[in-house]
Amino acid sequence: KTLLGQFNIRGMTCAACVNSVESILRELPGVTRAVVSLTTSLGEVEYDPSVVSKDGIVNAIEDAGFEASLVQ
Ligand code: 9UX
Q1: Three-state DSSP class for residue 53
Q2: Which end of the chain, N or C, is surrounded by fewer C-beta atoms within 10 Å?
Q3: Contact assessment for residue 10 and residue 58, using Cβ atoms and an 8 Å cutoff
Q4: DSSP state, 65?
Q5: Is 50 close to ligand 1, i.e. is its CB under 6 Å away?
Q6: Residue 62 and residue 66: Cα distance in Å, rounded?
Q7: Are the beta carbons of 45 and 68 closer than 8 angstroms?
Q8: In this model, does residue 72 exceed pLDDT 90?
Q9: Any idea what the CATH number is for the domain that residue 11 is in?
Q10: Which residues make Cβ contacts (< 8 Å) with residue 12, sequence separation at least 6?
Q11: How far apart are alpha carbons 5 and 69 in whole angstroms?
């Protein structure tokens, strides 16, 4: 069973930033879907909580050089 997490992502200034965040998320084990918006600074991530946690997702975004916080 997967869950949906919404994350606020700061530091994205162009479409390539969005692509790199999406790529990082999609390569993260446990993530089954990731959509990131530049205009809203939001990332919607579908994930398997038995494989990766919300904190794990936040950490992966921050490791890529962006600021991330949990919306829900
Ligand atoms: Mo765009 Mo983002 O030139 O880290 S890729 S600013």
Answers
A1: coil
A2: N
A3: no
A4: T
A5: no
A6: 5
A7: no
A8: no
A9: 3.30.70.100
A10: 18, 21, 36, 38, 41, 66
A11: 11
Pairwise CA distance, residues 46 & 34, whole Å:
6
Which residues contact residue 24 at a Cβ distance below 8 angstroms, ignoring those fewer than 6 apart? Answer: 60, 61, 63, 64
Point out the ligand 1 atom lying closest to the alpha carbon of residue 65: 4
Atom 2 of ligand 1 has which residue's CA nearest to it? 17
Tell me how far the alpha carbon of residue 36 lies from the centroid of ligand 1, in angstroms.
14
Q: What is the pLDDT of residues 14-67, one digit of tens each?
A: 999 999 999 999 999 999 999 999 999 999 999 999 999 999 999 999 999 999
Range of the domain at 62: 3-70
Say how far residue 16 (Cα) sits from the centre of its chain: 15
